[in-house]
Design goal:
Residues 175-228 are annotated as: Disordered. By secondary structure, the chain is of the alpha/beta class. The chain has 19 helices and 20 strands. It has 2 domains: 6-165, CAP (Pathogenesis-related Protein p14a, 3-Layer(aba) Sandwich); 214-500, no CATH class. The chain has helices spanning 41-56, 67-83, 98-101, 120-128, 131-137, 233-244, 259-262, 265-271, 286-293, 312-320, 333-341, 344-347, 362-366, 368-374, 390-396, 412-417, 429-442, 460-466, 482-490, and strands at residues 6-7, 14-17, 38-39, 64-65, 108-116, 144-151, 157-165, 214-215, 224-228, 250-255, 276-279, 300-304, 324-328, 351-356, 378-381, 400-404, 422-424, 449-454, 472-476, 496-500. Strands 1, 2, 3, 4, 5, 6 and 7 form a 7-stranded mixed β-sheet that branches. A 5-stranded mixed β-sheet has the order 8-9-20-18-19. Helix 6 (233-244) packs parallel to helix 18. It is globular and about 60 Å long.
Length: 507
């Protein structure tokens, strides 16, 4: 049977999953390329990283990424983006049916579909929060996958993952993803006669939220290291709050689904000596509600983001806990960031940090800790100079403008339009975070304690909540710190390393 489609607010998500996996009926029909759809290659790669990371954290092998399965997934994402209507599965259209277009010979196959306004990390978080989608991602029988993502004309993101079990390979034909898979998949042979079956539900993911960080040794005995994590991004924020803010009088709550609206929240949280907590948009996340009930010192909450990112139901849930609630928001992501910058706690700052406000938010979350330590706001830049909104220019005022990220993230023409005084950038997101850390230390931010969090698109929420600590924040890879982070650590007198998020390496 098919799980009913769930519809959320415009900045929320629309999710659906084909839970009945049927055998292919035929070769299908080659589809015509849809128009008015823009492939989001960064999201496609982020989805692969997210799937591999989630499987690795449960001891499962990564999924082999097949170029032809990419093409099938991308074709359906393009079609959905071009239509820009309701979310549906590809088996609704024989010309795109994943079951008849992925390479033949599979034993089982499935498809996850989603529509959202943000990026790969938010998509992964929503899928992992849905038992059916999570079962597909963590199905130990699946060994191959294809990913597709496209944006419609209004910016909505449509994402598809197709899964298959090919007896762990070898896979027929090419095994290397193409740089730009065709939007029209070619028909393939019918699958083997053995029909597929509905995925077996799995138990709750094994990562358990920690109420307090645990100490772990690293290669350097002079540096104390500990990890803080939870079973999801909301629980990780709670665990960090318990570790760093034992008796706060206020809390800042922002969306864990629309991270772009939550980016500006870290400096405000720091100024309020408050933890930054992430919640699901539709209602207050249970982990956050439990934390607030257990922390009687908190009497008020500042919500960052409009109704579409943090729904009125979340506000009602907070008020039901006896808390006073104040909302800071604007008409869009740029205006929301500007509204945070205008708060009395931040309005006196003479510096503002500006990072990319669309696509990857890696640079924006990397500067959160530095901005929080210096009491400066984080504002968001549009992709073109023509799109610079009046809310952004008004928020900048006569502040010193520091752009974060290279010219690919914030083009020089945009930086010029904003009157940028400086740019902090490196060869990649990890080197950019190290450049931000150098900038922070040069301005008096202590390097005694450094927070590290994953730089993967699917896990940037951990770096986001880390910002509220007001410490240097560096980004790391799942496999280890990498050259930029290791080099920075070795050049500074770091006493303590706090790794935020499950699986974040301590060295």
């Amino acid at each position: 049977m098919r799980r009913p489609t769930t519809t959320r607010s415009r900045r929320g998500a629309v999710l659906a999953l084909a839970l009945a996996l049927t055998a292919a009926a035929g070769a299908g029909v080659t589809a015509a390329p849809p128009a008015q759809a823009a492939v989001d290659r960064q999201v496609v790669d982020g989805l692969q990283q997210g799937h591999d990371a989630e499987r690795a954290s449960r001891g499962l092998d990564p999924l082999h990424r097949d170029s032809r399965m990419d093409a099938v997934a991308q074709a359906w994402a393009d079609r959905l983006a071009a239509d820009n209507g309701s979310l549906r599965h590809s088996d609704a259209d024989p010309a795109y049916d994943y079951r008849t277009h992925i390479p033949g010979g599979w034993r089982g196959a499935a498809e996850n579909a989603a529509q959202h306004w943000a990026g790969a990390g938010d998509l992964m978080w929503m899928w992992m929060g849905s038992s059916g989608h999570r079962d597909n991602i963590l199905n130990p029988s699946f060994d191959a996958a294809g990913y597709g993502a496209a944006r419609s004309a209004d910016g909505r993101l449509w994402a598809i993952t197709v899964f298959a079990d090919y007896y762990a390979g070898p896979w027929p034909g090419s095994t290397t993803p193409t740089a730009n898979p065709s939007s029209s998949p070619s028909p393939s042979a019918s699958p083997s006669a053995r029909p597929t079956s509905t995925p077996t539900p799995t138990s709750t993911p094994t990562s358990v939220p920690t109420s307090a960080p645990t100490a772990t040794s690293t290669a350097s005995p002079a540096v104390a290291a500990r990890s803080v994590s939870g079973e999801d991004r909301c629980a990780t924020g709670v665990a960090l709050a318990k570790a760093l803010a034992p008796s706060p009088t206020a809390a800042v709550v922002a969306s864990g689904e629309s991270l772009v609206d939550s980016v500006p929240a870290a400096p405000l949280a720091r100024k309020l000596a408050a933890p930054l907590l992430l919640t699901r948009s539709a209602g207050l996340s249970p982990a956050v509600a439990a934390y607030l009930r257990a922390t009687p010192s908190v009497s008020r909450v500042v919500v960052v983001g409009g109704d579409r990112s943090v729904s009125p139901q979340v506000v009602s849930d907070l008020q039901a806990l006896g808390l006073g609630v104040d909302r800071v928001s604007g008409a869009d992501r740029y205006a929301t960031a500007a509204a945070v910058a205008a708060r009395p706690e931040l309005s006196g700052s003479t510096t503002a940090y500006v990072a990319r406000g669309s696509g990857s938010l890696a640079d924006a979350v990397a500067v959160g800790g530095t901005a929080a330590a210096l009491g400066a706001p984080v504002l968001l830049a549009p992709p073109t100079a023509a799109a610079v909104p009046s809310s952004l220019t008004a928020a900048l005022g006569d502040r010193r403008v520091v752009v974060v990220g290279g010219t690919t993230s914030v083009p020089e023409v945009v930086a010029s339009a904003l009157g940028a005084d400086d740019r902090l950038a490196g060869a990649d997101r990890y080197a950019t975070a190290a450049a931000v850390a150098d900038h922070a230390v040069a301005r008096g931010v202590s390097a005694d304690r450094v927070l590290v969090a994953s730089g993967d698109e699917a896990r940037l929420a951990d770096a986001l909540v880390s910002g509220a600590a007001g410490s240097v924040t560096l980004l790391v890879r799942p496999s280890g710190w990498g050259t930029a982070t290791t080099g920075w650590m070795s050049g500074h007198g770091v006493d303590e390393v706090l790794a935020v998020g499950g699986g974040t390496p301590l060295r």
